[in-house]
Amino acid sequence: MVLSVGELGERGVLKRVLARLEAADAAVIGPGDDCAVVRVDGDLVVTTDTMIEGPDFRAAWHSGFELGWKLAATNLSDVAAMGAQPTALTLALAVPRDTPVALLEEIARGMNVATRELAPGCGVVGGDLGTAPVITAAVTALGQLAGQAPVTRTGALPGDTVAYAGDLGLAGMGLSLLFAEAADPDGTADGRPLPRLREAHPVILAAQLAPTPPIGLGVGAARAGATAMMDVSDSLSIDADRLARASGVSLELDAALLTAGFGAQRGVAVPVSAMLTGGEDHGLLAMFPADVALPAGFLPIGRVAAAAEAPLTLDGAALTPSGWDPYVVRWPGA
Amino acid sequence: MVLSVGELGERGVLKRVLARLEAADAAVIGPGDDCAVVRVDGDLVVTTDTMIEGPDFRAAWHSGFELGWKLAATNLSDVAAMGAQPTALTLALAVPRDTPVALLEEIARGMNVATRELAPGCGVVGGDLGTAPVITAAVTALGQLAGQAPVTRTGALPGDTVAYAGDLGLAGMGLSLLFAEAADPDGTADGRPLPRLREAHPVILAAQLAPTPPIGLGVGAARAGATAMMDVSDSLSIDADRLARASGVSLELDAALLTAGFGAQRGVAVPVSAMLTGGEDHGLLAMFPADVALPAGFLPIGRVAAAAEAPLTLDGAALTPSGWDPYVVRWPGA
């Protein structure tokens, strides 16, 4: 007998979800009032992101734990990309009335564990529960700059080293694998091919379903003098192109450096094409002055040059950005 | 020829939405980077809320402008209810690919105008665009306490005056009218009965579709010494019951005071039953020490007594909370 949120009601569901969450260090007042109250040191950074069943994920692929993990990880990475320390998350969760309460508990648990592992001290301070035709999760992440200047997309200077930290292309390879299975006549609506896929490609699947971006490296990159930084969510080519345009420079990527640094990740061979077009790794793309030793975790992948006709090149040839546009890309079968 | 978001693509839609938004005073860095950067004076308050087409609103009822207005108003009121000053909003908006771009522009314009009118200086600092099977909007509101202590739900003391500011019951009457029309065989999916309804009941409809909570009174209530405060979103009876339980007191509401203060609102006769069970007005329910003159805008509706078997009474009789539970209430036809 599976208990649904409609049977338990809002108050009961809230109680079970809150039981899965640990308090944030910065929380003066946590969940349960009109607002949470959060202590902030220096200017605040804030980002928000929504994951919706269908366009953003498929319930048959993710466990609730993985979904909660990914929700936390993808938002924390935006905070890290400003050179800030994550302090607090909010979670607005809306689900169909027949959704098992256990799924919401697992989402909360996944968020909690991901936050504890990727950004110790941060935590969920508040949220909202409601109903929706499909699982809908909106997360807002807050962070503090502690007196440092934020690292934006606009500060890259010609001569800077282009560097990257984190997985690169693995999450996109995972999505491709899942898409291929989704087109399989066996069908994936019930998740049947997943156990086999997970066994055959554990690293790639995990990178897509529960990514582990290098949140802890954001503050260090800022302290080391990063001139510009962003997290790579849509794809390296799309996001590098954005950063180049925002900074008024061009980015010259080097295929040999990409291969040397990221051609083999955790035992998986990753082609340069996957690095350039795969999204959702949420690693950090950062520019550093050429005379700065790259902080641990960052590897060089190119250099910054003056603005040119092509804002982005690979081995000297113009590179057309390609990856994810939520309003244009269509999922197989969608 | 109506341009859809799928035809225009994310970058183009984002540009049009941003064009409708004015900068927040506190924004050090506004939309366009991984995070916004916001200056905060004192501890931060944060709240989040989602409005989803179907469970939370019907697209045929609200104009885009009204929807954006309501999104801002309902979140700003949670900030006000802590005694804080709203400083910044984020908006995560996900819509079907065939949604007209103009609707998103109108939502942004409504948020902008509501914020300017209800909380001058506050503004949208960032957000996220995506796709969803139905219109899905998640707003997070930030506010600052500027050295004051937050006013929570837990501080009410026996002897305090129970006071209320804002509309009370009007928004619920509006929802009832709309529900009644939704059950009309004429049908409402295309919004046909709306022009007639709006003409016959302009105040009631506006209270439901684009409420005007007294955001500016929150900081003043805190300064005047409010011991406990919350915004009334689900209904006066539900939220007063919550506050009583959180404070460990009982709240004794007085029907004569309710009628004297709120029996006629902007030319509309409002029965006490509507005041007690109607939600979504987002007015401020606040407790003040008996020797404090109520700040302008607040009217007395009862008094706080020691904890009793019934946390909430009306004219001495136990009052059962009734109003809105998102997981239990079903809309007509849903």
UniProtKB/TrEMBL annotation, chains A, B:
Mg(2+) 5 binds at residue 234. Substrate binds at residues 56, 280, 324. One of its GO terms (molecular function) is thiamine-phosphate kinase activity. Keywords: ATP-binding, Kinase, Magnesium, Metal-binding, Nucleotide-binding, Thiamine biosynthesis, Transferase. The keyword Kinase applies. ATP binds at residues 127-128, 153, 233. Mg(2+) 3 binds at residues 34, 78, 231. Mg(2+) 4 binds at residues 34, 47, 78. Belongs to the thiamine-monophosphate kinase family. Catalyzes the ATP-dependent phosphorylation of thiamine-monophosphate (TMP) to form thiamine-pyrophosphate (TPP), the active form of vitamin B1. This is Thiamine-monophosphate kinase. It comes from Leucobacter chromiireducens subsp. solipictus. The lineage of its organism: Bacteria, Bacillati, Actinomycetota, Actinomycetes, Micrococcales.
